[in-house]
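Aim 2 progress update. The chain analyzed this quarter is reproduced below.
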Amino acid sequence: MSVLTDRINEIIKPENLVYAKSPLLNDDLMHYCPGCSHGVVHRLIAEVIEEMGIQEQTIGVSPVGCAVFAYNYIDIDWQEAAHGRAPAVATGIKRVMPEKYVFSYQGDGDLAAIGTAETFHAVNRGENIVMIFINNAIYGMTGGQMAPTTLVGQITSTTPHGRDVDLNGYPLRITELLAQLPGAAYVTRQSVQTPGAVRKTKKAIRKAFEIQAKKIGTAFVEVVSTCSSGWKLSPVDSNKWMEENMFPQYPLGDLKDTGRADAELYRIKAK
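Predicted structure tokens:
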């Protein structure tokens, strides 16, 4: 018995620790469906805030949809927003309290549909906020309807025969559009389906918060994600479907990382 105890004590030494739950994550049991990407992204946000030591200075804004439940799990100050209005609410908070780290956490039905105007104008103004965008190409919470990001041919509850371009138009690649705006300092698209992808996404989120600290414009992080329930697939098959179908439409990587230099150049030309 003593040999076993010694072995256990050896294994749990700090230098052998592989992963520890961030103290910013509450003990509430996550309600997300199996395979959902939200829980992974929550963990990354909590870890970044913890590692930067900015828990007391951070305010999150979450609107309607699955994204709204972020306030149940990450122990920071939160403000709920009406559907699509998180960028506007985040703008107001940041302008009143410029010393705070402010970010929005939004899904594609929210950010790229009802909140399109708020999204574009906030980024075009270069509001000094972070926007985290979860893109699973569907309305997840409300019944699996087609979203602006739904792929051509993708089956949803409102496109039972697949999205038809003649009827429904094309998928909206909102991140590419935002990257063209002069107020965008950092725009990237990542994913969380593999350990390597998770590390890249955490690095991107950390960089987004660092961009905010530099006060050089809006930082925008898209995370291409799965919705096992909405897609009617298992978690494993959802990841495969995402890689085979979503990544060609929404390729991963940095789209813009020019910061103040680009913004200043635009202002000079505008004069």
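The CA atoms of residues 128 and 212 lie 6 Å apart. The chain has a mean pLDDT of 91. These observations will guide the mutagenesis experiments scheduled for the next reporting period.
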